[in-house]
Amino acid sequence: MLKLLSKFSSCWKIGALSACLFSSPLLAEPSSALMVETGAGAMVRTVIGLLTVLGLIFVCAWIVRRFGLRPGLRRTGLIKWIDAMALTQRERVVIVEVRNTWLVLGVAQGSVRLLHQFPAAPEHKNG
């Protein structure tokens, strides 16, 4: 719990610092802050800003997927995901380890079936 609070407080400090740094030009010139830009220039700036935000979202998603930061795919705990293979768009074969036993599961839309079970391979027990 303390780690979570310390991470939250450090994020809060970074956010407050960045808000101060980026908002200072707006405080220095209040008349330019209230001026509304119109025309093609405003549209181009809006589209560039939107594309930048969408690009950042996709980069963050790629990083999360690339480095396995999703909490559902952790390899700790009782159930460990070993491998998966897509057969069709809606069907896959998945191998999971539960208590040193590998389960081969067939996963389809709305159903999961046990296809086979066997002891875990020795080289994968520690990793």
Offer a few descriptive terms.
alpha+beta, 4-stranded antiparallel beta sheet, 3 helices, 46% helix, elongated
Summarize the structure.
The protein is α+β, with helices and mostly antiparallel strands and 127 residues long.
Class inferred from helices and paired strands = alpha+beta
Shape: elongated
Kindly estimate the percentage of residues that lie in beta strands according to DSSP. Answer: 25-35%
Biggest sheet record: 4 strands, antiparallel
Q: Output the number of helix runs.
A: 3
Number of strands: 4
What's the end-to-end separation, in Å? 28 Å
User: Stretches where pLDDT falls below 50 for ≥5 residues?
Assistant: none
Described by its quaternary structure, the protein is: single chain
Q: Could you estimate the helical fraction of the residues in percent? A: 40-55%
From N to C, what is the helix and strand string?
HHHEEEE
Signal peptide: 1-28
Protein name: Flagellar protein
Keywords: Bacterial flagellum, Cell membrane, Cell projection, Cilium, Flagellum, Membrane, Signal, Transmembrane, Transmembrane helix
Transmembrane segments: 44-64
